[in-house]
Structures are given as structure tokens and as C-alpha cells.
Amino acid sequence: MVVDEAQAETCTPGLACLLIDREEAQRLAAMLKAIADPTRLQIFRIIERAPAGEACVCDLVACLGFRQPTVSHHLKTMTEAGLLNRERRGTWAWYSVNQEGLNKVRAILDPSVA
């Protein structure tokens, strides 16, 4: 359907055109992109549901059947996007869900959460 300019002005009265600024939209898109990978989604879910709320890289390697460098790459991507927290303990890194990042993703999907 093609709408001419005169009609466009009255199509949706009261429409809030920019609820999110461009920089914030880019940050949120990066978060969604980081979790929009099947392996990363699996990793995120494993960590989110871990009994202690965290998981070691070695545990994730065993669960997923991938090599450690592959799992570490995915973890780094999600950590940089603000979805995971990382804590070094000895030779291993432990990961937990970054609640602030998770809340941002939830707010994207359900604005009533924000």
C-alpha cells in the first residue's frame, strides 16, 4: 500500500518515533547478535540453569562436546556483549549470567519489563 505525504501525517497519531537512540540501539543489537547463535544460546542456557548459577569452561566443553578454544570464543563474545560475567580462578575461567545484560534483552522483547 502506498501512502502519500498528506495521509502519512495522520496515519498513526501519537506515534513515538524514536524511543531508543541510535547508539543504544546499536548496543542492544550487538547483545542480540551475540546470543543469536545456536551454540551461544546453548551455552547461555547451561550457565543460566547451572545449580550454582555459574559454570567453568571445562564443564561447558564437556557438556557441548566442542574444543575449549571454540567454547572460549563464544564465551568471550557473550562477555564482551554484556551477557556474561567472567571470573578467573586458577587456570580456569568461570562464567555467570550478567543480570543487567539479561534484563536489557528481556526489555527488548517485552518493553513492559523495563
Overview of the molecule:
The chain is an alpha+beta fold. It has helices spanning 5-8, 22-35, 38-48, 57-64, 68-80, 99-109, and strands at 54-56, 84-89, 92-97. It has a three-stranded antiparallel β-sheet. β2 and β3 form a beta hairpin. α3 (38-48) packs across α5 (68-80). It is elongated.
Task: Briefly summarize what is shown.
The protein has 114 residues and is α+β, with helices and mostly antiparallel strands.
- How many structural domains does the protein architecture include? 1
Point out poorly predicted stretches: none
Tell me the name of the CATH class: Mainly Alpha
The SS-based structural class is: alpha+beta
The CATH topology assignment is Arc Repressor Mutant, subunit A
- Helical residue percent? 40-55%
User: What is the CATH superfamily?
Assistant: Winged helix-like DNA-binding domain superfamily/Winged helix DNA-binding domain
The first-to-last residue Cα distance is: 34 Å
* Strands ordered across the widest β-sheet: 1-3-2
Count all strands and give the number.
3
β content, as a range? 5-15%
Q: What do the pLDDT scores average to?
A: 86
Secondary-structure topology with pairs:
Layout: H1 5-8, H2 22-35, H3 38-48, E1 54-56, H4 57-64, H5 68-80, E2 84-89, E3 92-97, H6 99-109
Antiparallel strand pairs: 1-3, 2-3
Helix pairs in contact: 3-5
